[in-house]
Amino acid sequence: MHSLKADLHCHSGHSKGDKISVEGLNTPKEMVEHAKRLELDVFALTDHNEFSGVKEAEKAGKESGITIIPGEEISTASGRHIIGLGLTEKISPGKTVDETIDAIRTQGGISIAPHPFDLVNRGIREQARKCDAIEVFNAINLDKFSNKNAKKFVKKNRMPTVAGSDAHCVDMMGYGVTEIQSENNVGSLLKAIKKGKTKIHGSYVPMIVIQYWTLERFNESYWQVMQYIYENYNTPKRAVAEKLLALTKKSPGKIDYLFKGLTYTGLGAAMFYSAAKNARKLV
Q1: Read out DSSP for 20-64?
Q2: Residues 220, 111 share a domain
Q3: CA distance 246 to 88
Q4: Residue 225: its pLDDT value, please?
Q5: Which of 170-184, 214-228, 254-268 has the highest mean pLDDT?
Q6: What is the pTM of this model?
Q7: Which secondary-structure segment (H or E) carries 4?
Q8: Which of 165, 187, 205 is the endpoint of a domain?
Q9: pLDDT of residue 147
Q10: Distance CA 120, CA 99 (A)
Q11: Last-in-domain residue among 174, 205, 236
Q12: What phi, psi does 177 have (nearest 5°)?
């Protein structure tokens, strides 16, 4: 039995978005190599509705001595997310929560409820009790109330817990680490998670990293975002959005002070909204 450090929620460049096509910035190999530099023992690749990066991650894992858990973050029919760990192939999005969990278990995997009470409603909230474990610390849930509600939910429902960096680039990795008491192989790791043989280590991703990731995504998805603005925004809103998007091309530079201000303003608004929401109704 070993005490193994794992990052169980990571996205590579194989993760794609709808409005902004680029989600992850690095290749699976780059992320595995960074896991080695962080002295992690275990790395789970959980791309959004994708399984195509797993082979590259597994090859890099063999070269780096990192145990790779093949996974996927799957969007349900309602747009909520469930992570499957220990998968053998892709699970298509668009199923119900129950169907998604059944598909994970059919492959011999385990289901994780990531960021179950996040502000943008990508978590499955109370349906998290149907999963094998719940993510009680997500390193980019910067409002903090989302993670606090997850911990309250676990205390009430007595579920196994994990942490997740929800890393979308190498600089985000290692902030949400799950320490697992297990033998160092995928089967044993999954069993240990289900049995709750875990310890949570978490700190929040720094704002400067969030800002860097956001700007890189906009720059790499520039024309797709511009098209979305043109097709979906009315004239006044479109003009403002187009000018702000154009400013991303001037980064890095003095313009970064503006983006830093916008980043902190957005975080402040999110924290205020979360506090008000939780004052009305606590989990």
Answers
A1: SSB---S-HHHHHHHHHHTT-SEEEE--BT--TTHHHHHHHHHHH
A2: no
A3: 42
A4: 62
A5: 170-184
A6: 0.85
A7: strand 2-10
A8: 205
A9: 96
A10: 23
A11: 205
A12: -115, 135
Q: Label residue 270 by pLDDT band (50, 70, 90).
A: very low
Contact 71, 45 (CB under 8 A): yes
Peptide bond into 252 cis (omega under 30): yes
**Residue type, position 281, single letter:** K
pLDDT digits (tens, 9 = 90+) for 4-53: 999 999 999 999 887 778 899 999 999 999 999 999 999 999 999 999 99
Greatest Cα pair distance, the chain, in angstroms, is: 62
Q: What is the 3-state secondary structure (H, E, C) of 108-160?
A: CCEEEECCCCCCCCCCCHHHHHHCCEEEEEECCCCCCHHHHHHHHHHHHHCCC
Q: Are residues 164 and 110 in the same domain?
A: yes
Asked if residue 232 and residue 164 are part of one domain, the reply reads no
Tell me which residue has tokens 């009470």. 117
How many domains in the chain? Answer: 2
Domain of residue 30: give its range. 2-205
Query: What single string gives the DSSP state of each residue in 259-274?
Result: HHHHHHHHHHHHHHHH
- b/e per residue, 51-80, with b = 16+ CB within 10 A? bebbebbbebbeebebbbbbbbbbbbeeeb
Interior CA angle at 77 toward 101 and 269, to 5°?
105
Residue 244 sits in the same domain as residue 144: no
Clarify whether residues 186 and 240 are in a common domain: no
> What is the per-residue pLDDT for 280?
46
Closest by alpha carbon to 104, among 129, 123, 85?
85
Helices (H) then strands (E): counts for the chain: 9, 9
